[in-house]
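Blinded run. Sample ID left blank on purpose so nobody reads anything into the name before looking at the predicted structure. Input follows.
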Amino acid sequence: MLNLNIGSVYHKIRKMKRLLLAFSLFFITPVSAAEITSRITDSVQLNVQGAAVQSTRIGASYSASGTNIQSTSFGGVNGAGTYDINTSGQAFTFSESFNAADTPVTTQSVSNGVIASPNLYGDSVTQLAGDKGSLAGTLSPTGVPTVTAGGAGTTATAQRSIELSVFK
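Blinded prediction complete.
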């Protein structure tokens, strides 16, 4: 025999609905504001160019050329040679050139990190140091960074970077 009490069945169904509702809250993902990122970066870079010398030694060179010329002795890198005209009264051409080699320097005097008189060889490039002048840069918490121009040989760079990421 089947004993059904409608009141107790109704209460059991209501109790199961409440339990189901309570357990379903564990499966819902919460809303989070941690997925929003805001980043502001300000920077100022100031540069003053340093002085520089680049010098390369050159070697000795000698050349002699001509027509209707006779050589008694070539000069070479030690000096001029001795030459005569082959056929008197005839046209002639003659060219002689000589470049002395650089003498190597084995020491340089340095005082407080500066070479007062740098050695300059036959092939040299020099660069003067920059002049700071009024070179300046400012970071502002409320605005864009600013820079003030300096003298020759200086650079100034200011930058503001703003990043906003949502659901990164």
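Unblinding after everyone has recorded impressions. Residues 6-51+129-166 form one domain.
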